[in-house]
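To: structure subgroup
Subject: Chain for Friday's discussion

All,

I'm putting the inputs and outputs inline so they're searchable in the archive.
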Amino acid sequence: MSTSLALADMTTLDILSATEEFLADCHLRRLSSTTLQWYKFTLEPFAHFASADSVVQVTGISEQTVRTFLKAQSCRVGARRVNHYREAISRLFKWLIVEGYVTTNPAQNIRKVREPKKLVASFNEAEVKALLAQPDQHSFIGLRDYTFMLLLLDSGLRLSEALGLTVRDLDLATGTLRVLGKGNKERLVGFSRTMERHLRRYLLRRETALQRAERQNCLWVFPNQDAGKWAAKGVHMRLKRYAQQAGVSRVRVSPHTFRHTFALWFVRNGGSPFHLQKILGHASLDMSRRYCELADIDFISCQQELSPLAMGSLAGADSRRVR
């Protein structure tokens, strides 16, 4: 139990304080900044709703309180956001149970709202080529942007994973990246021989640029103009500019669209959903299966070509006569 909570009166812990303490505990557990922002974004509206409804103490929050909040939100936001609220509230109360402040989870018996299945936006080949043609590769920043987009396409990294790469995470000899993903889980992700050549060219230019700026101690693979860590907002701004220049408007040009594009092309070219799960760092196969559905793979043809009879020595069994 955290020190601040241990000193609090367990019978008078209000929902706003509980939310603050939970966020502080998440910070102490070194959850990613993205996760912390997600908890803050989803829990604070509920805390203010419950307080305004005179349900101040956490012990007074019931299943009906949560249901009323989710119903009110469903009139404003989509099903996915409603499910995010439900999930965050459930995690908060699981934590409160562990800390000894409540004995039940009011969100436990509330089912998820059914989310509509939307097609995952991805780039076509013409759009990829148009986007890659925009950065001015004669400048270091332009080459950085070009190499960054190539790496997203080649590896399917999340934005935070790509921005968090340091030079020590690259192994050009084996063609692998050591990536820190969600939940601070490390995994190895490969890159192609073509990507290796682009990385070698980029790293040479990067070294020269950092020497000129007297910032040789910078470890980030993709630094900003001041040799610090490139911010996500900066990436989105650059991609938005390239999208306008390239005339790409059919789909949203974002790092996540590059990730989707990698995943769809991977399975369309015969990649296994099990391998895709490992590459993308997904906890389950659900999203990988979704990519397979969207890729419109001809599973009947796959079965006809890859069955034991088609592939093995059993194929000649039908030629034997019955005696």
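Points worth raising on Friday:
The domain at 3-99 is CATH 1.10.150 (DNA polymerase; domain 1).
The chain has two domains: 3-99, 125-301.

D.
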